[in-house]
Amino acid sequence: MRIIAGRHRGRRLLAPPGAGTRPTADRVRQALFDMLWHAPWGGRERVEGATVLDAFAGTGALGLEALSRGAARACFLETDRAALAALRANIAACREEARCSVLGADATRPPRAPEPCGLVFLDPPYAEGLMEAALGALAQAGWFSGEALICAEYAAGTAAPPPGFTLLAERAHGAAHLLVLRPAAAG
Q1: Does the keyword Methyltransferase apply (predicted)?
Q2: Domain of residue 38, CATH code
């Protein structure tokens, strides 16, 4: 697993041993960022300069990819100790400590957001059904800006836009089904 593009292109990322963490595959991350970059509702400005939330961060691949492509800063939420160690090592390997904050927090019971984020990545464990709970809790805690793009990764065949969110795009990539959402109030 590596950073696909930007200033950290080619940087290898550590993943904790075992099956507890399922990093988003390089090809899925590339497809997601291509959508963000080229869609009518997206564009470079949606990534460059963005404040990013990577919830269920695992290795931090999504948030670090965004930083590599010009995001201003990223916050990572993760609870697994092995994943937190890998995440911190990956941030250090990219020398991005100054632009990152890591919270050992559950995305279904998050702390209040220090600031709303314009670009959000949610990649919870597929089998645990955590997506809707996390979306609701993060919205309540102020993590989404009004125009936020929320990139939600589901298991193939299980994705549906949750209430309170507008579906902008969806794509299937092997075992992953990506939905790009916006808070419904934003239209």
Answers
A1: yes
A2: 3.40.50.150
